[in-house]
UniProtKB/TrEMBL annotation:
Native organism: Parascaris univalens
Class in the EC hierarchy, top level: transferase
Entry protein name: phosphoethanolamine N-methyltransferase
Keyword terms: Methyltransferase, Transferase
Pathways involved: Phospholipid metabolism; phosphatidylcholine biosynthesis; Lipid metabolism
A Pfam family of this chain: PMT2_N
Catalytic activity of the protein: N,N-dimethylethanolamine phosphate + S-adenosyl-L-methionine = phosphocholine + S-adenosyl-L-homocysteine + H(+); N-methylethanolamine phosphate + S-adenosyl-L-methionine = N,N-dimethylethanolamine phosphate + S-adenosyl-L-homocysteine + H(+)
Keyword set includes Transcription: no
Annotated ranges, domain Phosphoethanolamine N-methyltransferase 2 N-terminal: 46-169
Length: 367
């Protein structure tokens, strides 16, 4: 069952016609799993090459494979503790893949005491770059998923796999500090220290205005959520909202609800424009968001301006933090305190100038 999940995910990002050759990188310890993977691929008339030693991968033909499946290569070879060998594995994989080729990397991390290995490997794959014949290559992150079969049969939530696509990138400018948008967020607004400070203000697992209570009010807009529902969580923080929805309901029925920073109708100040540029925001007015949602094919689109509520939340959070200033300073320091305080003050000014809005879109997918 686990092997079928890997092959299904491979076909989710490719087409049968685009897959003619697959390289399986594995070890002798995975013989049963390897046989299943080979059989599933050969049933689809795909040529499969199997290598069981990393040295064989290093000597693989360049630009030869449409896809590579790594079956527990990193964990079984202890590559997380061998940075140079891990680099060699990824470089060899990139060289062997055709442009646009896909890597499915399955790893069972349940044996590691450090649960952050999942995040560390995701970060590693996302930022890795190498130069071959003057061209910068790396992976474009597609997805990270758990093996459902391992969850249901053994309660193992750390048997996971990454789906990555080989891409060509522009060479980094010497003044460029970040490689991807995810990297930019991780090293600026959403550092570990910033997230801990946000959680102190908004509550555990929440990093957005209003925290648990406000998110629950937003979720109630769905109205008819019932146990057994499924919800798609897109870019809403560090998981608090998804856990909250799971505890209360589980499964929207064809409806979409978006809360999003937006742009008002006032004359945009230079300070606000600099703020937008620094945060890499792509802001639209409420009317533009309604048009975009309708153009995407949704029906019964309702746009609501939540900016007044946003302003009230900012004032409330600023007051609460000022009242507990000494406690905050002990935990996070004056620099973080001043950064947050300045952020609240700036946002309130932006709202008063009708520059910064907080909007909500509610729509229905047509039958």
């Amino acid at each position: 069952a686990a092997e079928r999940e890997l092959i299904t995910s491979l076909f989710d990002v490719t087409t049968k016609d685009a897959l003619t050759s697959v390289l399986l990188v594995t070890s002798a310890e995975q013989e049963e799993s390897n046989s299943s993977l080979v059989a599933l691929l050969e049933d689809r008339a795909i040529n499969v090459t199997v290598v069981k030693r990393l040295e064989e991968l290093q000597s693989a033909r360049a630009d030869a494979y449409d896809a590579i499946i790594g079956n527990k290569v990193i964990t079984e070879n202890c590559l997380t503790n061998k940075p140079s060998d891990l680099d060699t594995f990824v470089v060899s994989t990139l060289k062997a893949l055709k442009k646009g080729g896909v890597l499915i990397a399955r790893e069972d991390l349940s044996g590691y005491s450090a649960r952050e290995k999942v995040a560390q490997l995701t970060h590693f794959f996302d930022l890795f770059r190498t130069t071959v014949n003057g061209v910068t290559i790396g992976f474009k992150f597609y997805s990270l998923k758990q093996i459902n079969a391992s969850i249901h049969t053994g309660g193992n939530f750390l048997d996971v796999f990454w789906t990555l696509r080989k891409e060509y990138f522009e060479a980094l400018d010497e003044n460029q500090k970040t490689k991807t948008f995810r990297d930019f967020l991780d090293t600026t607004q959403y550092t570990d220290e910033s997230i801990r400070a946000y959680e102190w203000i908004f509550g555990d697992n929440f990093i957005s205005p209003g925290g648990y209570d406000e998110n629950l009010e937003v979720l109630k807009r769905f109205g008819d959520l019932k146990p057994g529902c499924k919800m798609l969580d897109i870019g809403v923080g560090i998981g608090g909202g998804a856990r909250q929805a799971a505890r209360h309901w589980l499964k929207p029925g064809g409806k979409v609800l978006i809360t999003i920073y937006g742009m008002g109708h006032g004359t945009l100040s230079a300070k606000f424009q600099a703020y937008v540029e620094k945060r890499k925001y792509f802001l639209k007015t409420l009317e533009e968001m309604v048009e975009i949602t309708e153009a995407a094919g949704f029906e019964n689109v309702q746009g609501t301006n939540l900016t007044k509520r946003f302003r009230d939340i900012l004032l409330d959070e600023r007051t609460k933090t000022l009242n507990r200033k000494n406690e905050f300073l002990e935990k996070f320091g004056e620099e973080t305190f001043n950064s947050l305080l300045n952020g609240w003050n700036d946002k309130i000014d932006f709202i008063d100038d009708d520059n910064h809005n907080w909007n909500q879109i509610f729509a229905t997918k047509p039958l």
